[in-house]
Amino acid sequence: MATSIYVYENIATYNKIYGENRDDEMRETPLLDLYIKGEQLFVITNTSLHKEQPQLQRTIVHFRNKSLGEWETGEELLVKYNCLKLNINKSMLEIFPRFLRKPKLQFRIGRFYGDLEKGKVKINYEHRFYDLFRDRINLILEEKDVKKV
C-alpha cells in the first residue's frame, strides 16, 4: 500500500483522533525534513539507526535514519516553512505552490478532518508527524489569528 496523507484542521482535532496513541513512537514520529526530487517526496524521520534500503521506486520515499545518506545527489529541494499548502477545492497538498501556475509537486490527500470553506490554507510546519504503523503522513493546518474584540 502507498503512503497516505491525512490533514487535520487544528491540533484539537488531531488530539481527538490520535489522543491515546500520541505517546507511541510507532504511531507518532516527528518528521525531521521533507525533500522533493523530480516527482518524488522524500520523508526523513529518526526511527531507526540501522542501515536500510529505501524503496526508491515509490512516489513517497521514507528514510528512517535522520538523513538521505548515500542516496543524496544534490538535486533534492528542501521543503521549507510556507512551502506546503492545502488546496481544499482539489483536495491536493501543494508543495512549492506558485501564483497563477501549477505547484512544483502535488499529492492527493487521503482524508481531511475538519470544516473549511474554499481556498488554499497553509500547513503548520511545527506539527508534522509520520505514523509508521499505518504508513501515514499527518499534517495540521495553520490556525488563523483570532482577534479579540
Please characterize this protein's 3D structure.
With 149 residues, this protein is mainly β. It has one helix at 11-18; strands at 4-8, 29-30, 33-37, 40-44, 60-63, 77-78, 84-87, 92-95, 105-108, 111-113, 120-131, 136-141. Strands 1, 2, 7, 8, 9, 10, 11 and 12 form an eight-stranded mixed beta sheet that branches. A hairpin with a 4-residue loop joins β7 and β8 (92-95). The radius of gyration is 16 Å and the shape is globular. The N and C termini lie far apart (49 Å). The model has no long low-confidence stretch (mean pLDDT 86).
Secondary structure: elements and pairs:
Elements: E1 4-8, H1 11-18, E2 29-30, E3 33-37, E4 40-44, E5 60-63, E6 77-78, E7 84-87, E8 92-95, E9 105-108, E10 111-113, E11 120-131, E12 136-141
Parallel strand pairs: 1-10, 1-12, 4-5
Antiparallel strand pairs: 2-11, 3-4, 3-6, 7-8, 7-11, 8-9, 11-12
Helix content: under 10%
What structural category do the secondary elements indicate?
A: mainly beta
How many beta-strand runs? 12
Q: Number of helix segments? A: 1
Give the CA-based shape: globular
Number of domains: 1
Kindly provide the radius of gyration, computed on alpha-carbon positions and rounded to a whole number of angstroms. Answer: 16 Å
